[in-house]
Every structure is written in structure tokens, then in C-alpha cells.
Request: fold
Amino acid sequence: MPKLRPSGGYRDTASFQTATIVYDATYWFCEKFLDPHSRTVDQMVQAARSGRQNIAEASRAAATSSQTELRLLNVARASLEELLLDLEDFLRHRHLPQWAPDAPEALAVRQVPQRFRQNRSDQSDRSDLTDLTDRQRWALYAPWLEHADPAVRANALICLIHQANFLLDQQIAALERAFIEGGGYSEQLAAARLAERQRRKHDPSDPSDPSDRIPNCPNCGKPMVLRTAKAGKNAGRQFWGCTGYPDCKGTVPV
Reply:
């Protein structure tokens, strides 16, 4: 039986792949330009890691809880926002320039995926960044993320965080719409169960669960409940017993 809701597959999503670059770049940025004993380093690395890991955890939780999936994606979004502020603080405290959104340097970083697609001679062979390995994706951003100038690295990271947040915002909005339209896992499970009951009702050849056909008591007319004989020659066998027991001892064989 197929899953009611798909889960996993996060490694192929643009949000996870972008968050992976952000995490790696943050780790190496802190290693090169900040005091390893600084509390800020630990906070920045953990924020970058949280952004990545919560996307993965949300993907796995999607199978059974849309609320948990949404909550974890929002945690990832909040963690990346925290990292964004730390990088902005790094630039401001050192009187280093922060690129404007429309600055040529910022546009160059944001346009990496577009330039990559345009430069591929065979569009059917790895024409999108999501088809590359982590190392191949990193190489495309290496001119900025491995730059000797900390301002260039920090600004490039800020651009990538904005990209990751944009992707997460789209992902969260799509999940919210799907939840409103189709309900969560519990609602879908109940709907699937009702649909299966209806199918069995119209297919007499299908040996369905006897609980799908609850009879009324032949003595008093009350609904019956499925019971299991505890003693006697029928011990262990199921039967329908009246819900009015012990006042009514009506039974119906299964």
C-alpha cells in the first residue's frame, strides 16, 4: 500500500541544498575569521546547522504530521534569520560594507543558477543545480565563499541565506495551502479508511473486516459490539454481542 503522504527526498530540494552550502560556508568562515573560543562562533555554526538539519527532519516528519513538518520548516527559517543577523553584525562592527540587494556583486551571486543553466550545452544533462553533487555546487560559489576578504565571504553568505529563506517561504506557503485544502495526516487517514469501507461494501467478493458491518440485536434492536468468547467450546472466537448486556443477551455469529 502506498504512503498517504510522501516523505523524505529532502536531499533533492533546492532549500536543503542551499542550506548545506550556507552551513559549510559558515563553518569555514568562522574557522578563518573569528576566535574559535568565541560564543558567537558556536551560535553561528549552530544556527547554520539548525537551518539545514530541520529541513531534513521536517521532510521525514511529513509522512505522519503536517503540523510537525511546518513547525520544523519554520524553525529552519528562524535559524537562518538568526545567522543572517550575525553576519550583518560582523560587517557593521568592523565597518565593512554590506552589499545592496541590487549591487553588481550581489546580483552575480544570485545569478549563479541562471548562468549555470545558460552555459550548459546539453540542457538534458545536469542543467540544474539540484542535479549536481555538493562539491560541484560549492565550486560554483567558491570565488566568493573562499575569498580572502571576509567582507566578500560574509556578503556572499548573506545572499545565499536570502535565497534559502525565499525557498523556505515558498515551501511553507505551499504546505499551508495543502493543509487547508486536504487536511493533515489524521484527516487523510480517516478519509482513506472511509473510502476503503465504501469499496468493500460494493465488492461482496472482498473479505472485509467484520467491524465494517455492525448488525442490530435481533432481540432488542440495539447496535451490537464485536466480542471474543473467553470460555466454552467457542473460546477465542468472535461474535456479535448486544450492547444492552447483561439486560439483553442477544448474540449474532460473525
Remarks:
- The chain has a mean pLDDT of 85.
- The first strand starts at residue 224 and ends at 228.
- The radius of gyration is 29 Å.
- The beta strands are 224-228, 238-242, 251-253.
